[in-house]
Automatic annotation (TrEMBL):
Belongs to the V-ATPase e1/e2 subunit family. GO terms for cellular component: proton-transporting V-type ATPase, V0 domain. This is Uncharacterized protein. GO terms for molecular function: proton-transporting ATPase activity, rotational mechanism. The chain crosses the membrane at residues 12-32, 44-63.
Length: 76
């Protein structure tokens, strides 16, 4: 049993998004635009937000993958 393609693509997309946002925070910390404490808070917030956004997307995708209830159309 293999993992469906959209799950792999979506997971990689969220990983790239998270890495890019963490790199922005790290860059802001290195250039001095952000204090060490604010950068640490930003890293935690970004990590948690990206993880739970991915979880929400994954649950929504999986719920639509094989629906248990099929729609009933009026007039048929």
């Amino acid at each position: 049993m293999s993992v469906p393609g959209p799950i792999v693509v979506g997971t990689i997309s969220y990983a790239v998004l998270g890495a890019a946002l963490l790199a922005l925070v790290m860059g802001a910390r290195i250039t001095g635009a952000m204090s060490k404490d604010n950068a640490q808070i930003g890293q935690v917030v970004i990590t948690v937000a990206v993880f739970f956004s991915w979880m929400f997307w994954l649950c929504a995708w999986l719920h639509q993958w094989h629906p248990l209830i099929k729609p009933i159309y009026e007039g048929e």
